[in-house]
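haha ok so turns out i had the wrong file open the whole time. this is the CORRECT one, sorry everyone. sequence first:
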Amino acid sequence: MTTQLLLVQTLNGLQFGVLLFLVAAGLTLVFGVMDFINLAHGVQYMLGAYFGASLAAWTGSFWAGLALALPAALACGLALEVLVFRHLYGRDHLSQVLATFGVILFLNQAVRALWGTAPLQMPMPEALSGGIALMPGLQYPVYRLAILGAGLGTAGLLWLLVERTRMGALVRAGASNAPMVAALGVDIRRLFMLVFGFGAMLAGFAGVMAAPILSVEPGMGDTVLILAFVVIVIGGIGSIRGAFLAALLVGLIETLGRSLMPDLMRLFMAPSPARQAGAAIASMLVYIAMAAILAVRPQGLFPVRAG
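then structure:
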């Protein structure tokens, strides 16, 4: 692999990692604060992409589509929390898994009914089109760098919100000991609803940002959801810092593994079987890494400190 290709794939991995973080951040807070397994979190990513693509086409502007998609994703998350999720808080994890899986099926079919099965494409903003020279002979898309910058900026704002505000202190306390927070007079149901809505908006933001470079289609959130669960398990359930670092790690492993493994396998095998074996091993690398980390640190890399 050339230095140029390695640099490109590293940037692609970091960009994929920050998108994973935007999805995983809300998921880890929901799981950490509420002890609630929400398999339907990935559909918020899908809905954000659909809202963004549709609203951008309607307004003729990427920026207007983005601005309108965020409150739409927030409203959808709040509606799901009120109509479905809050009735499952006291249920066991199996009930939560089955119910939220039903929400996935319902919303995927609803998307097919409303938008059809043909993929949509969100227009890339003119200001962020084209490429930037990273080194002689290497142009990297400006929009992908913008995704990386937006993700890092959102991560910084989220850290300030969680670590430096009263609401963030309540969320952290809820992640450590939700019953104690409720006993101190905090409206825990309202806190849960805000966490759900904010997490849905973050996932929707990730979907909007990914829409110009990916096909917007039913079920697009399923793979992202699986990797988001890997992220929160590796980083530590309820930990924003852990989710951020684990997301970058998973993004790099996922992207670099698919690029490097076929080349590595050619050292031991003929080119054709090396490609097949390399692709198969690359698809397992993230889960192998998760198993290795959990064997050493079962609570994840950065678990929430118990209060």
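The CA atoms of residues 127 and 143 lie 9 Å apart.
again sry for the mixup
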